[in-house]
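Q: What would this chain look like folded?
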Amino acid sequence: MIQRIQTLLLFVAAACLIVACFIPIGTITTDSVYYSYTTWTLHENVPDGQTIYSTFIIGILDIILATLGLVCIFLYKKRMVQSKICMAAVLLNLILVVLMLWVYPDIVFAKGSVFANQSLSTQYTIGAFLPIVSIALFYFSNKCIINDEKKVRAADRLR
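A: My prediction, written as C-alpha cells:
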C-alpha cells in the first residue's frame, strides 16, 4: 500500500530537502562585501568568488534527511519502524535548522578572522525555510502512520 497520504508527505519532504541542497540559504552582508551562504559554502557573491568557509555539514545533513524520507516510503509494511524513522528525521531536521539559522551565521561566521570587527547582516531566502517545511511534513506523515497502525490493530481485534 504505497498509495497513502504519508507517502506523498514523505516524498514532498524529501523533495524539499533535495531542492534545499541546490539553492542558497541567504546572503550575508558586511560593511563592504556581500557573501552567498549555501548548504555547502560561504563565498563572495561575485562570479567565481573566493570560498570563505565550508558548510558541508549542512549539505550532508540535507542529503541524509532526504535519503531517510525516501527510504521511509518503502517501509510501508513496517509501520512502527517507519514511525521511528520519521521521528528521527524530525530530530535531525531540528538540528539542521539550528545549525543553518543560528550556529553558522551567529557563532561560526561572526567569530571568524575574516569578519573580525565587522557587523554582519543576514538575509534569508527560501532555501532557509525548506527544512522547516520538511519538519512539518515529517511530523504529519508520522501522525498518518500512527493512525494507520491504529486502524490495522483495530481490524485485527475484530477478526
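Residues 45 and 74 are 40 Å apart (CA to CA).
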